[in-house]
Amino acid sequence: ERVVVSQIHRSPGVFFSLDERADAYIAKIIPYFGAWLQFEVDRDTSILYARLDRGKRILGSIILKAFGMAGNSALLKEFYGSSGLEEVPVNMELVGKTIAEDVADPETGEIFLETPIEITNEEVALLERQRIQRVQILKGQGEPNFNSIMLKSLLKDQTRDTAEALEEVFRYFS
């Protein structure tokens, strides 16, 4: 009986569990060969973390970027889907909302608001000065059933793209 349970526990696949001691929801990815990858959501902070071979924790958003997700905008689009994003006109009702896509100058392409950023009066004034008429925001923010896991992880994450994420992973695990 013990042998069967032990073999199932180590067999390749994806396993989901609740770790009462760590107070976290866990998803383990166990390959046939190589390092185990474990994602966990801290139940207190609702932040996504990852571990390689049960090692140190790193933000899950950094690992996902290192695996090739293009950046914060791409992660938000994948995590929330098209139904979780909304394109809205620029006005003062945007204050307190979170931008879900980088905002760039239409002529030069220079990014002046990076995802994710909570919009303040200053950002609305900047958007109006730049003559930006519509922006994409996260829909449902502030509602009780809004899933803020990826948003909170990205707010804590300082990397912007795959290259920076790879550098951070290398620095973190070496």
What this model shows, in words?
- The protein has 174 residues and is an alpha+beta fold.
- Helix content is 31%, strand content 27%.
- The protein has helices at 2-10, 60-66, 72-80, 121-129, 149-156, 162-173, and strands at 13-19, 24-30, 37-42, 48-52, 57-59, 85-89, 98-99, 103-104, 111-113, 117-118, 134-138.
- A hairpin with a 6-residue loop joins strand 8 and strand 9 (111-113).
- Helix 2 (60-66) crosses helix 6.
> So what's the overall shape?
elongated
- Total number of helices: 6
Helix content: 25-40%
Radius of gyration: 19 Å
How far the N terminus sits from the C terminus, by CA atoms, comes to 39 Å
Q: Please describe the biggest sheet, giving its number of strands, its sense, and whether it closes into a barrel.
A: 5 strands, antiparallel
Number of strands: 11
Order of strands across the biggest sheet? 1-2-3-4-5
Main structural class = alpha+beta
Order of SSEs: HEEEEEHHEEEEEHEHH
Low-confidence stretches: none
Mean pLDDT: 89
Estimate what percentage of residues fall within beta strands: 25-35%
